[in-house]
Amino acid sequence: MTLQQLRYLIAIAEYGSINAAAQNLYASQSNLSTAIKELEQELSVQLFEKIGRRMLLTDAGRTVLPLSRELTQAYARQVIEQADMLEMRYADKGSTHLRLAVSTQHYAFSVQAFVNVVEQCEGDDYEFILRESSTGEIIDDVRT
Prior knowledge:
There is one protein chain. The protein has seven helices and four strands. It is of the alpha+beta class and 144 residues long. The strands form two sheets. Strands 1-2 form a two-stranded antiparallel ribbon. The longest helix has 17 residues, at 75-91. 15% of the residues are buried.
């Protein structure tokens, strides 16, 4: 499985067609079709079903890529987001940003404390990340 295949999977699911996804990704329809077929073979599942001109996720496709924006743990989206963050972080090798990353449960006092710190730090020399999640995910964040 490649990052490009996951990007194609997300785009096709969001746009509902290979044609629209290809146009928005500036790629050919055949490249998208081939990438999805290879991904389906690798995972041994059918990810999409074609209904007219629409491409709809199958049950297996929804397992790999839940459509709901609230489901932030969607596997494919999470992988792409992490890859994009890595690319952004290391794109400017001369960057001297200081980074504060906080992982917390949803508590108003923790958000307010985070905002207070952000407000005290002026300029573009800082990078701030606040992630609210469950206890298990917080432990994974700290470990990572």
